[in-house]
Design a protein that fits this description.
With 310 residues, this protein is α/β, with parallel strands linked by helices. The strands form 2 sheets. Strands 7-6-5-8-9 form a 5-stranded parallel beta sheet. Strands 2-1-3-4 form a 4-stranded parallel beta sheet, with helices on both faces.
């Protein structure tokens, strides 16, 4: 089996079979990451540019580690020391980069649609590392991988995504991916942070957290983007925590074998308390570990790989 596209722009429209294929491939790479020598020659000679127009810690380091452990030739692009500061357009920047014989571009950008735009400009494979409030597909995939790793399935699980849904690319990728894999998906947050007509995505929407958590298996807690408070979308962080914070007391509403997730970075004491984030049901650090395996799988498959890697 091969992926239908040479790009990964989002999980919307991706089939259950394709997603499962990526997750299965990631299992192979996670095994490789447990070896004493964690480098394989799979992408030797493949040139990859990490084109990040936004700050990032986990995603950028995770992609770079994945690339280097596949033996790719890696270049990290920083706007702060590039010709972007001199007024160079995105199109000119990427076309000049491709002229240096680059095969793949990993891009993060504050504007939705930039990864798709790059597919119209370049012959290289494009991987979306987060574009505006659109999607963050590798985060969605690593979340799916982490859930499947614990429960051995995704279908039928009740998953609740809590927080800033309206502006979250992570929420959208999770929703599309979870729905494709057969999960029962709900979202919960202040009405000002819920997209209009979100139910048309085929999910339930709540503004009452206690009601949303009833009988849930997985709670994926999103970072509250503090700048939203300045825009009048949140009355105060204290009130948000009281109404939507994941606290130890609220965990009693969940199923017995529940799971707490967070894509990071965490605002401790705002959307989640430290005792929950660091508690026995948290898989937050597992998500980070699994991110490297997922990104190795995506890079491998988009480069034309198929089957298992030894």
């Amino acid at each position: 089996m091969k992926l239908r596209s040479k790009h990964l722009l989002g999980l919307e429209g991706m089939s259950e079979e394709e997603i499962a294929f990526i997750l299965d491939t990631a299992e192979t790479f996670k095994e490789i990451l447990s070896r004493p020598i964690r480098i394989v020659p799979t992408l030797r000679g493949v040139g990859i540019v990490n084109l990040f127009y936004e700050p990032s810690t986990r995603t950028r380091i995770s992609f770079e580690l994945a690339e280097k452990r596949l033996s790719a030739e890696v270049v990290n692009f920083s706007t702060s020391v590039s010709s972007v500061k001199k007024g160079e357009t995105l199109k000119d920047t990427v076309r000049n980069i491709e002229a240096m014989k680059i095969d793949m571009v990993v891009v993060r950008h504050q504007s939705s649609g930039v990864p798709y735009f790059l597919t119209q400009c370049l012959n290289a494979s494009i991987i979306n590392a987060g574009d505006g409030a659109h999607e963050h597909p590798t985060q969605g995939l690593l979340d799916l991988f982490t859930i499947r790793e614990k429960y051995k399935r995704i279908k039928g699980l009740k998953v609740v995504i809590v927080g800033d849904i309206k502006y979250s690319r992570v929420a959208r990728s999770n929703i599309w991916g979870l729905k494709a894999m057969g999960a029962d998906v709900s979202v919960c947050g202040p009405t000002t942070l819920l997209p209009i007509e979100i139910e048309k995505m085929g999910i339930k929407a709540y503004s009452d957290l206690d009601q949303a958590l009833e009988g849930a298996d997985v709670v994926n807690v999103l970072r509250i983007q503090l700048e939203r408070q300045k825009g009048g979308l949140l009355p105060s962080l204290r009130e948000y925590t009281n109404k939507f914070g994941i606290t130890k007391e609220r965990l009693n509403r969940l199923n017995e074998n529940f799971t707490i997730m967070h894509p990071g970075p965490i605002n401790r004491g705002v959307e989640i308390t430290p005792e929950v984030a660091d508690g026995p049901h948290s898989v937050i650090l597992d998500q980070v570990t699994n991110g490297v395996a997922i990104r190795m799988a995506v890079l491998y498959l988009l480069s034309g790989g198929e089957g298992k890697v030894e």
